[in-house]
Design brief:
binds zinc ion; alpha+beta; 3 helices; three-stranded antiparallel sheet; 3 strands
């Protein structure tokens, strides 16, 4: 089963994995409380799922409660940060 062997090596420590971990994202959220949009930036990939659950609203200061689904900000949009301080990563995936 070649697939299983490949899966075992994933994600590993390949160049692609490292470059994904270096990336940061800007997330547009809508506050569950005041329903005003706000953006949070510089989120690393491992914190993407966590951000709407732990970031206080910039407008009303509402603190999300991850244990209550109604008290988590809504994710409206997400985009990759382009002003990353680390530009040494390859822009192409030719080294895969
Ligand atoms: Zn709010």
């Amino acid at each position: 089963m070649r697939h299983l062997k490949n899966m075992a090596e994933w994600p590993g420590n390949s160049a692609a994995t490292r470059s994904i971990r270096r990336k940061t994202w800007t997330m547009i959220l809508r506050c569950y409380e005041c329903r005003v949009r706000f953006a949070i930036g510089k989120i690393t990939v491992d914190r993407l799922a966590l951000a709407p659950q732990v970031t206080a609203c910039k407008h009303c200061g509402a603190q999300p409660d991850a244990t209550t689904w109604m008290k988590v900000h809504h994710i409206l949009d997400m985009r990759e940060d382009t002003d990353s301080p680390d530009r040494s990563g390859p822009s192409s995936s030719s080294d895969a």
